[in-house]
Amino acid sequence: MKPLDLGTARASTMLPAALGGRIEPAAGTEPLLKVEGLSLTRGESLILDEVAFSLRRGATLGLLGESGAGKSTIALALIGLLRKPEVGLSGTITLDGEGDVVDAPEKAWLKLRGRRVAMIFQDASAALNPCFTIGRQIMTPLRRVLGLGRSAARVRAIELLESVGLNDAPSRLSAYPHQLSGGMQQRVMIAIALSSNPDLLLADEPTSALDVTIQAQIIRLILEETRRRSASCIFVLHDLALASQCCDDVVVLYGGQVVETGPSRIVLGAPMHPYTQALKGCVLEFDTEELEPLPSGAPSFASKAPGCRFADRCARALDKCAATKPPLVATRGRKLACWNPLP
Amino acid sequence: MSTAPIFRLLDVQKAYDIDAKGGALFNRAKRRLRALDGVRLSLAPGESLAIVGESGSGKTTLLRVLLGLTHPTDGRALFREKDIASLDGVDRDRFCREVAMIYQDARGSLNPRMSVLDLIAEPLDHHKLCTKSERRDRVAALMSRVGLSPAMMSRYVSALSGGQLRRVAIARALASEPSVLVADEAVSGLDVSTQAQILKLLRDLQREMGLSLLFITHDLGVAAYLCDRIAVMYLGRVVEAGLTREVLKAPAHPYTRALLNASPRFFAPISDPLPGEVPSPIDLPPGCRFAGRCVRARDDCQKSEPALTPASPTRMFACFHPLAS
Fold this sequence. Notes:
CATH superfamily of the domain at 31-269 in chain A: P-loop containing nucleotide triphosphate hydrolases
Distance between the termini of chain B: 37 Å
Number of strands of chain B: 12
Strand content of chain A: 15-25%
Strand content of chain B: 15-25%
Largest interface: A-B, 43 and 41 residues
Shape of chain B: globular
Order of helices and strands of chain B: EEEHEEHEHHHHEHEHEEHHHEE
Largest sheet of chain A: 8 strands, mixed
Number of strands of chain A: 12
CATH architecture of chain B: 3-Layer(aba) Sandwich
Oligomer: heterodimer
Structural class of chain A: alpha/beta
Order of helices and strands of chain A: EEEHEEHEHHHHHEHEHEEHHHEE
CATH topology of the domain at 31-269 in chain A: Rossmann fold
Radius of gyration of chain B: 21 Å
Distance between the termini of chain A: 62 Å
CATH class of chain B: Alpha Beta
Radius of gyration of chain A: 21 Å
CATH topology of chain B: Rossmann fold
Helix content of chain A: 25-40%
Helix content of chain B: 25-40%
CATH architecture of the domain at 31-269 in chain A: 3-Layer(aba) Sandwich
């Protein structure tokens, strides 16, 4: 078999599983991903405010919060679709082996996107091109990114579709997206995202359009496939119960600020930030008698507002909260930004 | 108020004929898609009933039958003991006033060229429920009832958030002073915090105004919070029905169990609840339609279809090998 020309410095770890498998990372290496001081300004608004977190190799991380918290914006920055300087992005995104990629030009991103970082979008029916067959959409990255020939790409595409649980894979290659159910479309998306063995998979609400039984299948599939490849995964979620089931660590965001972050067992098990607690209180379990919903409201993104952005909806707010932004400090196994945390 | 049921469905069947692909023009075998296959339900005044099931289970067809938008191909759908399909004159007007609908897509269900005032007043005008001078006050009262500031009266749909839109849709549904609220996935696609607000509002309204509520959802947590009774549907049939608490505490049908296992719960391991997907409802094989995905299926499940039979006065299920309680 002819060796593959992958055109990147990391070619050795990029070999597809069918051609020898990937090289396991050495133990004790740097975290796969480190985000520090990530801020995004648009005009007078500060959309992301000093967001920081890191992700270990093989771990899963959940970005949690209501819509408008900045979850998807962070995901877009991580896959290089938002880059400074044109959008007002600052801070660093360090991807193991690549250095800081926040400044990387599009040409460099073309080599990273799909190969090292891949994304599963929320709405598979909108992300797949309705004009092309499933086969063409899954084989294009195999041929362009991995440089496989036509027949090798076809074989690999069938393997990938089978690995994501699509039965009758060879005949599915000639199907168009509209001929598949929502769950199957999402499986195809996962197959495409995994096709070049990325180290980092971003899953933006991958199951919010699906039924609960299909949701469980899809989440399990993503976890199994990333684990098998010792890849890391970032889930963007708004369901805290689901996050507790599939994420090792969580980052709770409010109005573009990290309010609480740490191992999900600690943060979601016993939240200390009133916002995390309030979100947890919105999750319906089968014996939920009373809901105590948060008052309506949306965070202010005004860059000059000094205090905690959650203060005006917070039942525990002190005078200090609106005046000074609480720093993110280590507290009882997690990092917390709150002047008046829950005991 | 009488306790006679508001809605009654008697073995309602809704089948669609589908042209088979291929074959000669005059020799095409017709195939039947049974969207609803023998559904029996009733809704009493003041009662809340959740219809739960995955996509393709026939929830929306059931709703269309209840609203008189399609007519059953077999069986009868009754509103206050009268056939919905043949309501006319005064009965038809009464039906339209008493049964209010909250749609899944709130944005799509509201005319973008009408102000909030006109949207909420439309049912008032249509049913001539108030004079011109009262109109504004009635709308303001409805808006405060659903937690909207009357100051938003002159806004348009494009200037409202998802949660505000749902509230407008609810106010509009309440305007005709209905006795039944019918809601199709009325909280899907919202943030959990907004969802919690809307659910609390719906439950308060239902209890305070003595409304009947028929809530279609795929979320068992929502069903448990809102509704006293539940009916679980699979491929056009009700497979289990009863008091929500009893059903969710000890499901008898393996499908109900699978739905429960699939619902996210804090720190529970993610199970693989069911193999495969809901099969096509066209030309179903004989036997229990869930048998192909059921871990408890045995030979008799493939041969004949279990009927929905009462196990206690408050509980019914359709399974030959139910889970022990």
